User: What shape does this take?
Amino acid sequence: MQYLEIKGGKKLSGNVEISGAKNAALPLIAATILSKNSVEISNLPNVVDIKTLIKLLENLGATCEFKDNHCAKINASCINSTKATYDIVRKMRASILVLGPLLARFGHCEVSLPGGCAIGARPIDLHLSALEKMGATIEIKDGYVIANAKDGLKGAMISFDKITVTGTENIVMAASLAHGKTTIINAAKEPEVVALCKILDSNGVKIDGIGTDELVIHGTNGKLLDINSIKVIPDRIEAGTYLCAGAITNSKISITNCEPKHLGAVIAKLQEMGFEFEISGDKITILPADKIKPVEIITSEYPGFPTDMQAQFMAICTVANGTSLIDERLFENRFMHASELNRMGADIKLNGNVATIKGIKNLNGADVMATDLRASSALVLAALVANGATKVHRIYHLDRGYENLEGKLKALGADILRGDE
Ligand code: EPZ
Assistant: This one.
């Protein structure tokens, strides 16, 4: 296993280019199952989760040709199996995104239950009940979802009890080939969902209400799509993470190839903490604050404050001038970074899903353990300002969703290196 060693105390400067969004690329890769020909996807992030999902498709018989680390041509027309096995699905829950497209195209599939993960139980009941409303029969057997719709899926009225990002994406893809119209009420509105809908809508599937919480998908009655090329949108969470690197080190840095309008809640929170910004086109520059003010955060679905930025902000709060509160409303166990930050001298108290963070003058370097993707990035951020050296262990979590994190931070002036345990 590998670790990152960071020596804290360096100011950052310069510019970092944001990669394509992992959480936009994953549903788009799954959507290639709906296409009758090869699909070229550009601006892919070079991260492990992308390789994992492409490997899953190849295991089903699809072919993939990487033109470079950021561009792949995927041909799902030669898929000859519809069983997504546990060995791959257990590595990445987002594998569940093949369920809707496989069922829609082939009328049958077996997808391993993804199981929980570090941040929570992460059930898929909403995905399954929606597919049943579309006429599928769903059986859970030996840890697999066995789905059948031999006469194809039919349009239905779906109302999600909770807003689910991959649940919305799965049903939008399933509805794309269905017979008739599917309405999704309480749909997720994340930019990644909007990007998927726009691609489908411009390739033969009429979708009304894109960007709103009510989507109407007019199915093609089983006719495959003709998707040619797709460009992945910038990663708003990676962008937010680098803005937090500028904030916690109180440095002036710029990020480019990002979409500022996807970062409204994140920028607003950093402004509340005393930071100012220069925004022009796809470039955002964060300017140092006189002092970092404490803040109150409640995570919610887009366009509210993203749960995927909660850990990174907790790191900043540990060195703010006062007491901050973070209320994590989406996941039941997304505070595992708190105990690791406390090992660095932070003063964080947890009470259920609410964290109270009393700002301190300095964090101290320590050996800490990454537990999930965003928690790992929070530990790296804390290490950037801690006295002395910090080793973040088990950084395979980071490699799942951040492209070349140490290279990008080193280019900004951080003292960071990757080592083998
Ligand atoms: C997506 O996960 C993201 N992953 C997550 O990012 C992100 O944290 C999450 O949305 C929330 O924004 C991808 O897009 C690949 P949900 P997803 O279904 O779709 C409950 C990262 O760090 N729920 O929107 O799995 C669920 O338990 C990852 O990049 C049900 O109860 O999340 C949670 O409490 C982490 N039943 C809430 O809904 C269901 O059937 C939101 O989950 C589905 C979800």
About this structure: The longest strand covers residues 2-7.
